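Deliverable D4.2, example record:
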Amino acid sequence: MAVVKVNANNFGEIKASEKKVLLDFYADWCGPCRMVSPIVDEIANEHPEYLVGKINVDEEEELAREFGVMSIPMLVVMEKGKIVDKAVGARPKVQILAMLED
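Output generated by the structure prediction step:
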């Protein structure tokens, strides 16, 4: 399944997803974000049981504020509309998958 570009308009349906959701808060200028981005893409393609979305903090300042994003990349796992895990900084694939599997 492809990565969903998340914005204020589609966030409601993302939040309401029956699937566990992985959100990647990033910015195009952020080096560590560019390291995490292909890993997030791989997870989206290899694990259709998860809904994977990316949120550009420069374009979606309100969503970034709502989630309390202070540093990027920030990965958030949501289940049934609630945040169940959060991690700031670049992470290897195995750690990101562990966040989803808990």
